[in-house]
Design goal:
By secondary structure, the chain is an alpha+beta fold. The chain has 11 helices and 8 strands. It is extended. The termini are far apart.
Length: about 240
């Protein structure tokens, strides 16, 4: 039996549920999940921040009494490629597999200060902060204490004590409540049109949307799109700049 369970865990594919929600109703949706499943069966997903290369350089400097000017200069020497900083290990020792040479200028500067390099290297990668995932929550079959644990962020938000990888392995179901700005716009459009008697409420949000705004019922003639290229409409779906308009 243990072999079968182990095999299932090893071959398990990632499972989660994604659904879109209006941004300003995100908290309302979360509380609805709590009310439906039970408060002790729903938790926000924990995220953990780590000390990256530049932050480790700054933290080590403060601990060793090295000035901010020095740590700022060293941080500027760390190579950034495509938005990502090289690690301190790759900076100091190079990385043949990735084609990274030793950063001689960085090494020469950091070695002017005793224990600076080794301290920064030991700090890099350490967990230094916790937070909550922007959209994900976990739903549990039973009380979350059966397979997980709860802790709180600095503002009191209840989150898992494990990250999503470990929580997934223990069998929790992740639900991604994706806040979509377009949904806020659609809902506000409906509210305004109903208020101005341009639409008639059909008894439910779903039926009102289906009758007036469902793609199958829209008029796709040139007149529909003309206000976008004449800048009469400044924000259409994700086109909220002059690019492509």
């Amino acid at each position: 039996m243990e072999d079968i369970v182990y095999s299932l865990v090893k071959t398990r594919v990632d499972r989660d549920v994604d659904f879109d929600t209006q941004g300003f109703k995100r908290e309302q949706v979360f509380h609805a999940l709590e009310n439906f499943f039970g408060k002790d069966r729903v938790l926000h997903v924990a995220t953990f921040g780590t000390e990256k290369a530049k932050k480790a350089v700054a933290t080590a400097a403060r601990g060793l009494g090295i000035t901010d000017d020095v740590s700022s200069y060293l941080s500027g020497l760390i190579v950034n490629e495509r938005g990502f900083d090289r690690t301190l290990k790759d900076t100091i020792y190079g990385n043949k597999d990735k084609g990274f040479p030793i950063n001689g200028e960085f090494v020469a500067e950091i070695n002017k200060y005793p224990h600076y390099a080794e301290t920064a290297l030991s700090i890099e990668g350490l967990i230094s902060s916790i937070g909550s995932h922007a959209s994900a929550v976990y739903i549990f079959n039973h009380e979350y204490t059966d397979i997980n644990a709860m802790m709180k962020t600095s503002n009191g938000l209840e989150i898992t004590q494990w990250d999503y990888r470990d929580s997934d392995e223990m069998g929790a179901l992740k639900m991604d409540m994706l806040s979509v700005e377009a949904l806020d716009k659609i809902r506000e459009t409906m509210n305004l049109l109903i208020k101005d008697d341009r639409m008639e409420w059909q008894g439910s949000l779903k039926e009102t949307y289906r009758k007036y705004l469902h793609p199958d019922n829209l008029d796709y003639s040139t007149d529909l799109w003309k206000p976008t290229w004449t800048n009469e409409v400044l924000d259409v779906f994700q086109l909220d700049t002059t690019v492509n308009l």
